[in-house]
Amino acid sequence: MDTITRRRSRGDGLALLAAVLTAAGCAGAGDAPGGAAQERGAASSVVLIEGVDWGHLNPARGDASPRAGALWGDRTSGGGPSGFLVRFDEGFSSPPHIHNVTYRGVVIRGLIHNDDPGAASMWLPPGSFWTQPAGEAHITAASGGFNLAYIEIDDGPYRVLPSEQAFDGGERPINVDRSNLVWTPAPGGSDADGPHVAYLWGETRPGALRGVLVRLPAGFKGTLRTNGGATRAVVIQGRPTHRASDTPTTRTLEPGSYFGSDGATAHTISTGTECVVYVRSDAPLEITTTTHHTE
Length: 295
Hints:
seven-stranded antiparallel beta sheet, Jelly Rolls, mainly beta, eight-stranded antiparallel beta sheet, single chain
């Protein structure tokens, strides 16, 4: 896919968020993996994909439904934001349907199509991003042998409803193939080797939510520091090691694993190969680099 598809976002704008991320020299990271599937400290939390509890995304469809597993929040009851993984079998295709809330998605593995019921298939590979507005009729399909996506909502609960209940809430969807992402060096980095970011949605004003992809080069060692607020991060590509400042444990995070924090926290990260992490936050972030090199 060489162009952004015909689906567009509300306001048709993805504001550059250059003030969100900064780069400087700072402390390094450890290398040891292992430990329990989930650890929760005073400020931080980690969920390894191997510890995710899988259930039906749409219980009404039983075993015909994709599988879903919570990473943070609770999509099934009450209000509030949440993030979860969805796993699609090869050849899966949903009937036309709508959702009661808008969601965002990032492809982690496989190929996923999400569009109007009559649209030609446009398969989004890993690292691609899409949004699905509340009330718009659509289908979701998967083509890879193993298909996995990260989904998040800003307010729950998440419901699947028949397309006959479609409505126009004023939002418009967007599909962005990974080849159309615009990567820019984190301030203080270089075009050749430092951390890069791709800005997906949101604003830079204090307290505003935004979402970015962070690309860390092979051999990176450094810190992602959250200066207050809530930060939710999901590994999209690679196997970084991670340790939060409120825990002594360093873990290896497979794609689909999660780390997050509430309040000021330093997340120390190192990479063996290039890694991509999706980060949602309502506070400024700092990427501080100790060393990096390209192998």
